[in-house]
Specification:
It is built from seven helices and seven strands. It has 222 residues and is of the alpha/beta class.
Length: 222
């Protein structure tokens, strides 16, 4: 749990905003997306490994090239819309993804859950979202547990660690293929990851996390 997280704000966000949006999305009344970026560094985090009795040394990729993926996870279908590059994620990439989402879900009422990163909360992004009719729901600070796309990134990283990549192009293609498969071949596994259960921390001193399931809530989303 992040040291500066506020459990009360997290539960309030879940009860007053997130859970009502989830219910509306399941009813087909809105499209609910979770947006965030992940940065995959080749030659650092994803070397591939295998366990054995005898220690052996193998060559690894000598660079530290990074593949950045900004994604928007559909809460219901589990499809992930992306914008990616090997440089940086900026407000420009966020705007590109918003335009893509607006086309993909044309005619739908779109709500996006995201964090408070500057490149996502700046004027150029919020103004474009308003023009496109996209509604933002900013999670409380230090609350990655409320952004369900974080679970997708963990899923992608676990799959990457099963193989060594000798070329950056292969590394990129593998990431793209895993992400594009979340609503297809990997759907059963992803459905187990993405649901209404959201980890909350009402008692930060407890050995067990509290999982919220809803209950009596005030619907503050029109």
């Amino acid at each position: 749990m992040p040291a500066k997280a506020d459990p009360e704000k997290q539960r309030a966000f879940y009860c007053d905003i997130l859970k009502p949006l989830m219910d509306l999305a399941k009813q087909g009344a809105i499209t609910l997306l979770f947006m965030d970026a992940s940065h995959f560094v080749m030659g650092c985090d994803f070397l591939g490994y295998i366990y054995g009795v005898t220690r052996r040394f193998i060559k690894t990729y000598s660079g530290r090239k990074r593949y950045n993926v900004l994604g928007a996870l559909n809460f219901v279908s589990k499809e992930v819309s992306t914008v990616a590059n090997d440089a940086y994620i900026t407000a420009s990439e966020v705007c590109d993804l918003l335009k893509k989402v607006a086309i993909d879900y044309d005619g739908k009422s779109i709500y996006i859950i995201l964090d408070n990163a500057r490149y996502q909360k700046c004027a150029i992004v919020t103004e474009l979202a308003s023009q496109l009719g996209i509604h933002f729901g900013f999670i409380p600070p230090y609350s990655p547990n409320l952004n369900l796309i974080e679970r997708i990134w963990k899923h992608v990283k676990s799959r990457l660690r099963t193989k060594y990549f000798n070329a950056f192009d292969d590394f990129q293609k593998k990431i793209d293929s895993i992400v594009s498969d979340t609503d297809k071949n990997d759907l059963p596994a992803v459905n187990r990851l993405i649901g209404e259960k959201v980890q909350l921390f009402d008692n930060p001193h407890s050995e067990h996390s509290d999982f919220a399931y809803g209950g009596e809530i005030q619907n503050q989303v029109a």
